[in-house]
Structure formats: structure tokens, C-alpha cells
Amino acid sequence: MTSVQVDKEHDGNEAVHGDESPEGGEGYQRGLGARQIQMIAIGGAIGTGLFLGAGKGIHKAGPSLILAYAIAGLVIFFIMRALGELLMYRPVAGSFSEYAREFIGPFAGFVTGWTYWLFWVITGMTEVTAAAQYMQFWTRNADGWLDQPQWVFALIFTVILFGANLISVKLFGELEFWFSMIKVTAIIGMILICAGILTIGFSDAADTASVGMLWNQGGFFPNGIGSTLMTLQMVMFAFLAVELVGVTAGESKDPKKVLPKAINTVPWRIAVFYIGALIMILSVVPWSHFQPGVSPFVAAFEKMGLGVGAAIVNFVVLTAALSSCNSGMYSTGRMLRQLALNGQGPRVFTKLTKNGLPLVGTSFSATLMLVGVWINYVDPGEAFNYVVSFATISGMWAWIMILISQIKYRRKADRGELPQSSFKAPGAPYTSMFALAFIGLVIVLMGIDKDARISLYAAPVWALVLGVGYLAIQRRKRAAAPALEDSKS
Length: 489
Hints:
Blueprint: H1 3-10, H2 34-44, H3 48-51, H4 54-61, H5 65-89, H6 96-103, H7 106-139, H8 150-167, H9 169-199, H10 213-216, H11 225-230, H12 232-239, H13 244-247, H14 255-264, H15 266-284, H16 296-304, H17 309-341, H18 359-378, H19 382-414, H20 430-448, H21 453-488
Helix pairs in contact: 2-9, 2-14, 5-12, 5-14, 5-15, 5-19, 5-20, 6-7, 6-19, 7-8, 7-17, 7-18, 7-19, 7-21, 8-9, 8-17, 8-18, 9-15, 9-17, 17-18, 19-20, 19-21, 20-21
């Protein structure tokens, strides 16, 4: 079933589609190769949630945070395999927004597309500001051109990334490749250093370093199982953007070969970069030494007596923030265009450049990201933080839609109504149901946590805005239908 057929089935109106290829490219250039897709997939699972946020999680749950990452990582794998099954059925540029529209309904696709767009706009706002803040590490005592206000660097980063996204999709892929390479190298380097301390015994931490510190410092659950459960929302936040690989489907050179390989790397990515790194760090540094707001990598470097650690980690988190903003620039333009192609957004967003890039949608999103930088500059208080807190729940909405769409697709495929995917999710639909239940648990825990509860308050407001917008679009379609029929006759 094509996107146009889906529109006819649900709306009775034909969607506005561009140059659609059989593979779902829809006018885009397939400029992302296997090397770039693999690193986008790896980088999507590694961000500031690990490099900075893990410190708060360790302080709260101790070594049991490792178990939280392992369980959440298994759920993420279920989500990604569900997405992979859908991608191999129909690798389209709109990805999960398209699948929500096809298998749940046009309103679900509308909500998913606009919510995922908002997620990346908000993320872009915060990450470009965070990148400017990280620059203060070097500019604090600097003279000359480096001695600039924070907003100047935020502007520079936004303009550079915006320009890169308008040159070619291949340049976007190259930026993500090298951003991800830096993050991967930093984590592997930390793991090797910790392994050396544990086996060879060099550095100041060698005298106390031992794997036994995972359970000898008050036990594996030093603050109780309840504290471990409360870290699940932080853990899931760290994995947000892992689904970005699905958005690249319309621009991958060989999606049916490349995407399954990228998705199948999820287990070892999580095992190495999250579980492996935490096991090593907590074997070298007692969990009680970590504090919220302090990177566990910085704390580990200090314990080892490596003074360059702070500078190294600051550079890594800077690239992680720029990587996230770069991904936001990329995904928002594609999501807006897909919404416009389906008649669920302004038609001007359908336009592509000669290089197959969604200029208008990317420009609109980048402009809003600049507004976010201005808001953060003028009023960095609670009002901005409330908006930022919505990112977690909006990101998880995409996962929920992926899982429900996969369950519905599998039922139709098993009945012979649709072709079977060449990349079936193992254990589905039961694994998808388990993942949905787990996300439900995380949402309940967010409601219990007073710091995260505000995001749940924001969700109904956003739902109301989307509901009004959707009704307005449907009313406009109905009003336009008689005029269209008269012109045909």
C-alpha cells in the first residue's frame, strides 16, 4: 500500500505528493552510504545523557544503574527491530509518521509528525545553547576572538550547521560520521584506560580499583530498588534519537541492506558504550564519588590523576551537543515536508532544492532554534526549562507509534493483506507489547517524580493545539473538495 493509497483509504482525499520513487525516496537524493548510516545509528544512542546525565543516575542508584541501562537497552532493541520490520516493508522518508498514518489513522500520523518535529526543535534549542556554554570552558580566561558572549557561539554553531544541511545530505552524513567517531573514540579510550588500571595497575586509582566495588560499596542496590526504578526516565532520555536512523530511509543508498545492519548493531552498542563503560568506570571509582551535574567521565579522569580529563570530556560533550543539533536540522526539514506532502502541513514545505534538500522546512526549523537561543539568553529561568522538559515525553511518543504500527502491520501481513517484511522483529508482537508496557511504566514514574511531572502537564496542552490544527485542516479540505470537483467537471 502506497502513501497515496493510505490517504484515499482514510481521508477520501488524495494527498499532495512529490516525485515519489518506488523505494520511498520522494524526490530526495540517496546520498547516505553504509559507513555514514552505521555511525548515525551508533551516534544516535550516545549523547549528553551518557556523558553528563549518567552522573545523576549513579548518584541516585549506584551500580544498579547498569541494570537499568541493560533493561532499557533491551526495550530499545525491541523498538528498533519493530521499526526495522516496518522500514523493510516500506522504506519511506517520513518513517514512523508515515507508518502511524497508514496503520493507525491520519490523525495519528499528523500528531506523530508534528510532535517529532517539535521534539527536535526543542532539542536543537537546548543543544546549541549547551554547545555555547561548553565553549566557556576555553573562553573563560581567553583573550582575542575567543572572548565572546555565549550567544555569539550559539549563533555561529547554528549558522554553520544550517549551512551544512543545505549543501548536501552527504555533508550532513559526514558531519554525523565524525561527531559520532569522536564520541565512540572517547568511550573506547575510557574503557581501555580503566581496563589497564584493573589489569596492569597504573595511575593513582590502581590501589583501590576492583570489579568488587560494584557490590562492596553498600551493595549493588545501595539506595534500594525504588531508587533504581526512578532512574529509568533518565535512562530512556539518554536513548532518545536512536530512532533517527529510520528518518534516513528515504536518503539511504541501499536501505534494505544498510538499515538492518545498522539496527542489528543496537545490542552491542548498548553493551559496550553504556554497560561496558559504566562497569569499567564504577570498578575504578566508587559510586559514592559521583555527583549530579558532574560528568562521570570527568570524575573518573580526576580519580586517575589525569588532569587533561576535563578538557577531553568538555570537547566530547561539545561535539555531542553539535551532533544532536545537526540531527535536529536534518530531521525537522524532512518531517515537515512529509506532513506537507500528506496535506497535513503548509504546502510550501514540499519544495526541494536541486540537491534534493527541503530548504523551506529546514530554514523554518532553524529559525525557531535561533528563537530558542534568544529565549535562553533573555530568560534562562524556569519558563524555558518547562519547555525543555517536554522533549522526553514527545520523543517517547514516536516509540509508542512505532510499536503500535508494527503490531498492526504484522496482523495485516499475517492475514495476507500486506506483503511480509524481509526483516521480521523476533518475538513480535509480544516483544512490542512488552516495550509498550515498559514505556507506560516510565510515564507513570515521570508522574511520580516532581521534577519530571511538568512534561506530563505540557502534553495535554500540545494535544489540544494539534487537535485544533487537525480540525482546521480537515475543514479546509472539505471546503476545497466541491471547488475541486467543479473544476474537474
